[in-house]
């Protein structure tokens, strides 16, 4: 199974072209993919990403925390910081980065985070 393009640092793909042999993963690429999967292992972080995707407009901190149903601000801030490459803040409102948008779109499209049983 190929690693999706949104996991590659700096929006690179594993091959660089559609022809020729696939490039083997180096230690830095494996470390990056591992850190992305680690970040996404939390239901709170997934809820934050899904909320931002569904709203499709910037969301205030309060709205985002309420949507994740996390009362503890420290706990919520911890999870929000872990999403620093997938979520950004502008003028006090949160939105998905390009990589975050690509990830959540791919995950929803491929049924990676939906229970389809």
TrEMBL record:
Residues 34-104 form the DUF7347 domain. InterPro entries: DUF7347 (IPR055771), WH-like_DNA-bd_sf (IPR036388), WH_DNA-bd_sf (IPR036390). Gene3D superfamilies: Winged helix-like DNA-binding domain superfamily/Winged helix DNA-binding domain (1.10.10.10). Coiled coil: none annotated. Residues 1-27 are annotated as: Disordered. This is ArsR family transcriptional regulator. It comes from Natrinema altunense.
